[in-house]
Amino acid sequence: MDEEEIEKAVVAYLKKKGFKQTELAFQEEQQLNKNTNSQLDPDITKKILSFSEFETGPERYQEEYSKLRSWAYSSLDLYKHELLRVLYPVFIHCFMELVARGHIQEARAFFDSYREDHEMMHLRDLQKLEGVLSPSHLKEMEFAHSIRLSKVNIKMCQYSYDLLLQYLHKTESITMLGIINERINFQVSPGQPGSISDDAEVVTLVGSGPDASLLNQKEIHWGVRKRSYQ
């Protein structure tokens, strides 16, 4: 996702929500960067996430993911299977972001609401991650820690990628935009979408090295998951 697209999304979001002073400061900073041929702030995605967190808190993850999910499932059949590939890594990182911010009840409710969507292809990952019950587990659990340090690789055709960008900008899904930009590495190819039979291989949560392979084979448990969040 290029810098200009991110900048437009952030400015549109700030303007819509009435953060006038923040909008002006952001635009001044970006103009200065352009005048000095500087690159966009490397922490821009963290700024995006902080803007959305400031406004509504944890419920924004639920709202934006639900809308993204509905949009992907209602997309044209030709491109649907590629767009659906985005949902699993976004789901995982929404869950872990909520945990990292201390919203444990909201994280568990979010996880339980959508885990069924992903059980067929990612059951072992989900069984590991359902044991994440506190921010400390994100560091102590090797599998979760590795995911948060890596970018997800997703293959899709150019048109599917363009559709995704258009959706994110049109709906001003600033939280999803931040997660996708920070956590996903798109491998975009020209031409028609790839085969749906390739889906098991085109989404990789961790890298392809030997350490990642071992991580995917490990069974890590943090005790029985609590059913009550009281």
TrEMBL record:
GO molecular function: RNA polymerase II general transcription initiation factor activity
Pfam families tied to this protein: TFIID_NTD2
Subcellular location: Nucleus
UniProt entry keywords in alphabetical sequence: Nucleus
SUPFAM superfamilies linked: Taf5 N-terminal domain-like
Domain of life: Eukaryota
One cellular component term from this protein's GO annotations in UniProt: transcription factor TFIID complex
Xref: Gene3D superfamilies: TFIID subunit TAF5, NTD2 domain
Chain ranges of the TFIID subunit TAF5 NTD2 domain: 56-184
UniProt GO BP: transcription initiation at RNA polymerase II promoter
PANTHER family: CANNONBALL-RELATED, TRANSCRIPTION INITIATION FACTOR TFIID
Full protein name: Transcription initiation factor TFIID subunit 5-like
Source organism per UniProt: Nicotiana sylvestris
